[in-house]
Amino acid sequence: SREDFQRIPELAINPLGDRIINAFFPEGEDQVNFRGFMRTLAHFRPIEDNEKSKDQNGPEPLNSRSNKLHFAFRLYDLDKDDKISRDELLQVLRMMVGVNISDEQLGSIADRTIQEADQDGDSAISFAEFVKVLEKVDVEQKMSIRFLH
Amino acid sequence: LDYQHVQVPFEITLWIMLASLAKIGFHLYNKLPSVVPESCLLIFVGLIMGGIIYGLNDRSPPVMDSDIFFLYLLPPIVLDAGYFMPSRPFFENIGTILLYAVVGTIWNVFGIGFSLYGICQVKAFRLQDVSLLHNLLFGSLIAAVDPVAVLAVFEEIHVNEKLHILVFGESLLNDAVTVVLYKLFRSFCEMPTIKSVDVFAGVGKFFVVGLGGVLVGLSFGFTAAFTTRFTKDIRVIEPLFVFLYSYLSYLTAEMFHLSGIVAIISCAMGMKRYVEANISLKSHTTVKYFMKMWSSVSDTLIFIFLGVSTIGENHEWNWPYICFTVIFCLIWRALGVLVLTFFVNRFHVNTITSKDQFIIAYGGLRGAICFSLVFLLPDFHRKKLFIAATTVVILFTVFIQGMTIRPLVDLLAVKRKRESAPTVGEQIHIRFLDHLLAGIEDISGHWGQYYWKDKLEYFNSKYLQKILLREYDQPKSSIVLLYEKLERKHAMELAQAGQLGHSPAQPPFLSSDRTVITDQKLEDTLNPAVLDNIQEILARNLYRIRRTGPAYNRHTLPGDSEPAEQAKEILILRHKSL
Asked: What confidence tier does B571 reach under pLDDT thresholds 50, 70, 90?
């Protein structure tokens, strides 16, 4: 349950703690079982080369680059409309940046971010635009943890 | 004519002048630096100078004094490297770097030493009087990769950041190992018998040297940060503290026979964050420029002296020994890199490709440190042979490997550094991923790098910043700083293009609502209240600006190469969005 997660001390001081915890729980439920736990953590497995040769027609494995990015995208996008709106971005920024920055400045930062990424002019970041911003970042290696080695 | 009176400073200044003029000369021919790296050209100039002096005086030209090198010429370069080291890639790869530096160097030393001893056993070469210990001593000084040479060559070829930091970090940190092994073998040479206790003492000494260097450096670094907390009223001498404390840390470490290079690097990296927050913008610029200037001068002088010292009667040419030295250096380095990378790739997610491995092995350049160490050897009858071999190895690596590494990098299509200006969005997302990963690591109980980074940040914000920063009022996060920096740059470009006068673009830091913008009309004169506000915000931001730029480059200061085109594009986008 959620309280169990919240007992982890480091998670309490992590700015994104609540959202990460929420990511483990599927829609509307309050308990996560082991299978669900593993499913979420499976996003962070490192990418192995031999998986590419497996059948291309089947569903993509959970730890592919786009699925990893999708996981991160879902943490931004709380209302699940497949876009990161300015407000959602503002919320995340506020959590990460701290309390000393004025709302105006934060708003300008958010504006600038959206402007840099936005290509279809809808003043929100869609998943494709999100992927494009991070195309130069080595996401496969950043978002991988060697569990149980 | 009172030459005796001014002789020493006069000659020093003449040498420095010669070095700088040579540098200007190279850049006059645009094509030359792209084919031949600067270090080669400088050695060449040194050779010519040495030849001239030899011809005039008919005796050997002044050999570079090891004291001058170690005490005056080397510290500025290492300080420059440490201060501008991109700390994020460095700490992400620290395990690999340490492995290469420590294990790799030991491997090289023993490999080269033993194989050369094997060569000496061959009767035909007339080398039997070179004992195993001498060979090991020689191995210890020639095996170490040299930071000066690596820096000079690698920064012109712009390989990807990870590769750069691996080779460079290794060349800096292997100083600790080199110091220990060199001193160890040298003292063994003088002792009649060697007991195994001595060997273990040597191993223990290595830890002392390395960790002691780090401790000395960090303590000086934090003292420097603490001192700059109080320099608010005497801004003029602020840059001096940076240099004084770093140099002191180097000298103190050398005094205690610890590793000076490691000390000065830890000093620079430790103090950078806090000092930059405390000192004014002008002092910061001064520090940056002075450091670059000094390290550039030192670097040039080292190579020229290397060339000068080559000419002369210091050498004994025993060709088999020399050739085999060169061959073994290459072979053992390649083997070392292969074996170590195999181990590294087993444990790490991000693998080092074979192309990268080749460049790491090929980029193991030897330089002036080996040269000075060989001159410091006690005088025994084979010393000149070692000097000759060292000279040939250095010339070989710098000239041949230095010249061919660029075409090889192009040929093998090694991943290059991505040349892109930082965007705020990217920074935000990277930070976001950092937090995310730290959280996931906490949940899974895995002590990975994000866990330690998080812990360090926590420790930093709770304790260190309170003591070391002057205005502890929640310093701004790097996202905000980057944003401010980009906005300021943009605003300055607007002002320069004369558009601030009739620009319809609302100053971005004032807009809070899109609808308000569309209501404002284009006006010829900007609202004076708005203008005042801009200047005030600019003044505040100017005071607090910090560099959050890309990796380190010796010749061009970071931040210079940001394209103005991007700013213009953003301006155009903004116009469109109105």
From this structure: low
